[in-house]
Amino acid sequence: MYDILKKNSAFFFPYLLALLAGTSFLMLWNRIDVSMFINGHHNAVTDFFFAYWTDVGLGWLVIPVALILAFIRFRYMLMAIICFLVTFGVNDSIKFALHTPRPSIVLGDLHQSFYHVPGVDVYEWDSFPSGHTAIAFGMFCLLALLSKKSSVKFFFFLFAFLVGYSRIYLAEHFITDVMAASVIGVACAIFTYTIFTNWKAINTFAGIDKPLINLSGK
User: Given 4, 12, 30, 45, which is the most exposed site by the fewest CB atoms within 10 A?
Assistant: First the structure.
């Protein structure tokens, strides 16, 4: 585990800082105050950006990721698919078991209003943990683990972070929903990466480390 964190510090260092910052905020204020603060600072540019960027956390993300990895290694493509399935399974099992109210319900009960970004559907239930955030962190963390460049690893963190931030900005989730989901996504990515890296049995499959889609014909 330490080696994974060290080799991928460009992803995990800012991620741990983000978790620390979020925890610090929650020690000073409650989840409603933090989420209301983020939701309350908006403008036309960020409205437009987050309204679309949040969809990166939808399940379709696995399709382009797996397709791109199929041109590199079959093993990597399998990693992406398994990572998605495990992340989705764990996160949504918790989500539907708890069935917690989203900000729209909680704030409504407290007679507080929130900023509604035009054109965005705001849901009412199954708030904890955030599915979009879990999928984004699972996929982008896995890509960071597979990448060799530190700058690319950092940008993968940034991409995932912005998805998580968008869920609070759009008043779809509380900060606690997002933080928990990010941990689930990262944990599932590390789990998948470790299994496919250390599981000797998978190395017996011919072509596991060759491209599934080989346009060169070699």
Answer: 45
Q: Where residue 50 sits, what CATH number does that domain have?
A: 1.20.144.10
Number of domains in the chain: 1
125, β-bridge pairs: 101
SS3 state of residue 101: strand
Round to whole Å and give the CA distance between 134 and 195.
19
Instruction: Report the amino acid identity of residue 111.
Output: H
Write the pLDDT tens digit of every residue in 171-198. Answer: 999 999 999 999 999 999 999 999 998 8
| Domain annotation covers residue 93 | yes
Whether residue 58 is contained in a domain is answered as yes
CA–CA distance, 170 with 197 (Å, rounded to integer): 37
Residues 6+ apart with CB under 8 A from 49: none
Tell me the C-alpha distance between 112 and 19, whole Å: 27
Q: Report yes or no on 143 lying in a domain.
A: yes
Distance CA 79, CA 84 (A): 8
Kindly state the tokens that stand for 84: 């998605």
As a 3-state breakdown, the chain gives helix, strand, coil percent values, each rounded to 5, of 75, 0, 25
- pLDDT per position as a tens digit, 149-179: 999 999 999 999 999 999 999 999 999 999 9
- Gap between the Cα atoms of 94 and 98, Å rounded: 6
Given the structure tokens 């509604």, which residue do they identify?
116
Which tokens belong to 130? 């955030």
Note whether residue 184 is domain-resident: yes
Q: Which residues pair with 1 in a beta bridge?
A: none
